[in-house]
Amino acid sequence: MYRVVLIDDERRIVEGLRKVVRWADYNCSVAGVAGNADEGAALIRELRPHILFTDIRMPGKDGLAMVAGLRSEFPDLQVAILTGYRDFAYAQEAIRLGVTRFLLKPSKMDEIKEALQAMVESLTNNASAGEYAVFSLVSAGAGYWEVAVMTLVANARYLLMSCALSQKLAPETGMGHRMLLAFDVTDEIFGVSIAFPGRLNPFYTYGAMAVAIPGWALGTFFGVVVGNVLPLRLVSALSVGLYGMFLAIIVPPARGNRVVLALVLLSFAASWAAASLPALAAMSSGVKTIVLTVAISLGAAILFPVAEEAEA
Fold first, then answer.
1. What's the predicted TM-score (pTM) here?
2. What is the mean pLDDT of the chain?
3. Each residue of 125-181: pLDDT tens digit?
4. 307 to each of 84, 172, 191, 302, how far by Cα in Å?
5. What is the mean pLDDT of residues 247-274?
């Protein structure tokens, strides 16, 4: 059963949530309550809950500062904010801290139930864009086939990455190695692995994973620490640096191969056209990316095939 902690300086809010919500229906129980951020932080460290409902403005430290201070210790804690203030800066900070739901008081019971269900679901699966897309369909009453197709489309890019990595492995590479690489493929791991010259040794990718996984954890930790010091606008501006990672992946092979350079430029142009054409406005950005990836990759494979001897 998932442990829930409620933090609010208004006692009636805490007691109302505790009594009105049927926590057992979501496999949850209220493990503890607190009236301010300092008490709440101590309670969280003691009880180690899975889910947190907290106010922002409370005596002493505010709720968002409390969450920021706890993020490195509890990276998987699902957080819902309950506040009576419509302040966009609060919403921005909540997004930066990975808050699951931002609810305005007084909140309807359906909104609280939806927030609780979302947090429980996030605890039980490993997804992001796919999770959002599927639950949007479920809430609209979609059937099983619609959900299955959307799940396939939302995760198709990982299918493409896995296929590309599998082809880059030596023919004698066992199925176990292929499945393990596919299980933990990410944009970054894929970029590093696919840029490796010649046949890919699976242990090269395992090494990248061994560095990347703790790196993500440490990056999250330092992001929280630095994010509490730097102004919010500067933190948002620094997020542009994420695109530097993708440039670092595509520039080296593009410099060494004119065909790759031409395909990269074609991809940029096609992506801009797909985003600008009114005829494609109804198509989601994810579907556009998948369609362009398949079309350009297929065309390149037909027009510029790579001989097996050149990869050996």
1. 0.43
2. 77
3. 655 555 656 665 666 566 777 677 767 766 777 777 888 888 899 889 999 999 888
4. 64, 18, 21, 12
5. 83
- Select from 29, 23, 27 the least CA-distant residue to 3: 29
Query: How far apart, in whole angstroms, are the C-alpha atoms of residue 199 and residue 246?
Result: 22
Residue type, 306: V
Q: 24 CB contacts (<8 Å, ≥6 apart)?
A: none
Residues 6+ apart with CB under 8 A from 194: 164, 165, 168, 200
Which tokens in the block code for residue 153? 């489309």
Task: Give the separation between CA 174 and CA 195, rounded to whole angstroms.
Answer: 21
Q: HSE-up of 111 (CA within 13 Å, CB side)?
A: 12
The 10s digit of each residue's pLDDT in 48-103 is 999 898 888 888 888 888 988 888 888 888 888 877 766 656 666 666 676 766 66
Angle at alpha carbon of residue 242, lines to 240 and 248, rounded to 5°: 120
Q: Which CATH code is given to the segment(s) 2-124?
A: 3.40.50.2300
Cβ neighbours, 10 Å, residue 29: 12
Q: Which two tokens stand for residue 205?
A: 């990718």
Whether residue 106 has a cis bond before it, omega within 30° of 0: yes
Beta bridge partner(s), residue 5: 32, 52
Tokens of 35: 């009236």
Pairing of strands 2-7, 51-54: parallel
> What separation in angstroms does the CA of 169 have from each of 107, 156, 198, 205, 306?
53, 20, 9, 11, 14
Helices 285-303 and 258-276 cross at an angle (nearest 10°) of: 150
Quote the tokens at residue 76.
């998987």
